[in-house]
UniProtKB/TrEMBL annotation:
The keyword tRNA processing does not apply. The keyword GTP-binding does not apply. Its main location: membrane. This is Synaptotagmin-like protein 2. It is found in: Cell membrane. Residues 51-173, 188-320 form the C2 domain. One of its GO terms (cellular component) is exocytic vesicle. The lineage of its organism: Eukaryota, Metazoa, Chordata, Craniata, Vertebrata.
Length: 350
């Protein structure tokens, strides 16, 4: 049923129900490095002000230097964030979508106490033209709050495949509210087809040679559909797996790389032993899909299987954030011992 299989021990006995800060500090350090690795393009305060005003910018592609250039000129009539002081401190931020993590964000300087900021700055991306043409440019304006959350002032999204590249002139564009897809959390990154199974300790009977002395969680990663296409040839993808809160090498497993395919078939099984039934309430299986390149791997999407309580062994953690679908999938596995539970779960930003 699978072309590769991994079996590793996962020792939960080092975690206590009410661990001290000292005994858990090394785990929490590694947890924070994982949970903070992927940032959302939409991070900040969207409810404080209504989007208004316009932004003037121009786009160009420098063929010689293979560089995409966003010339941000100015904004007019932006919303006022601090009504008591009648001020906004705006800046402009850009991303290339759909994979905002791949190319990263660019942003202008902050202009203080103005709703009509003048920037005259160029934001640059080193990127091949063929790759650029399958991207969208997200340009948004924000109020900078050094003591709190930045406030969203409006955005515009440009489909670069249909952009008129002969137009290098500065033009005005109306700033729009946060897009409906972002409000609804729609961020389609593909769908993972997988099965999971929990084998409780001693549940297979004394006569069974494979009867585990401690419980096991089996994860069968079958395939992924509709991955983000980061370049014309497709993606070279693989799947990483951790059982959080353990982010050590012992917990880490990965599949082989499937090249040039946005619908990769992995057929990879992983077995974690050392699971006691009560651990299922506090652990979380994190599966992430990555595009492989020589210098660095790029995050494509992931899922987290757990109860989504926000707590792990009594400690508040941000990775216990499973969606309703992911929680239901995990709960079905917990209630049906020794049975494969099959699911089709959407990948998301983590």
């Amino acid at each position: 049923e699978s072309d590769t299989a991994s079996e590793i021990s996962f020792q939960f006995n080092k975690h206590k129900k009410t661990p001290s800060i000292g005994s858990h500090s090394s785990d929490m350090a590694s947890v924070s490095s994982v949970s903070g690795s992927v940032l959302s393009v939409y991070s900040g305060d969207f409810g404080s002000v209504d989007a208004q005003g316009t932004v003037e910018f121009a786009l160009d592609y420098d063929e010689k230097n293979r560089e995409f250039q966003v010339h941000v000129s100015q904004c007019k009539d932006l919303a006022v964030v601090d009504e008591k002081k009648g001020r906004s401190d705006p800046y402009v931020k850009t991303y290339l979508l759909p994979d905002k993590a791949r190319m990263g964000k660019r942003k202008t300087s902050v202009k203080k106490r103005t709703v009509n900021p003048i920037y005259n700055e160029v934001l640059r991306y080193k990127i091949e033209k063929m790759v650029l043409l399958i991207q969208k440019l997200n340009l948004s304006v924000w109020h900078n709050d050094p003591l709190g959350r930045n406030s969203f002032l409006g955005e515009i999204e440009v489909d670069l495949a249909s952009w008129d590249w002969s137009n290098r002139k500065l033009n005005w564009y109306p700033l729009k509210p946060r897009s409906l897809s972002a409000v609804n959390g729609v961020d389609h990154r593909g769908v993972m087809n997988l099965s999971i199974k929990y084998v409780p300790p001693g549940s297979l009977g004394k006569m069974c040679p494979k009867n585990p002395p401690s419980g096991e969680v089996h994860i069968w990663v079958k395939d992924v559909k509709d991955l983000l296409q980061l370049r014309p040839s497709g993606v070279d993808s693989f799947v990483k797996c951790y059982v959080l809160p353990d982010t050590s090498k012992k917990s880490y497993q990965k599949t082989r790389i499937i090249k040039r395919d946005t619908n990769p078939v992995f057929n990879h099984t992983i077995v974690y032993d050392g699971f006691h039934t009560e651990d299922l309430k506090d652990a979380c299986v994190e599966l992430t899909v990555w595009d492989h390149e020589k210098l660095t791997n790029h995050f494509l999407g992931g899922i987290r299987l757990g109860l989504g309580t926000g707590l792990s062994y009594g400690i508040s953690v941000d990775w216990m954030d499973s969606t309703q679908e992911e929680v239901a999938f995990w709960q079905e596995m917990m209630s049906a011992a020794n049975e494969w539970i099959e699911g089709l779960l959407p990948l998301r930003s983590l």
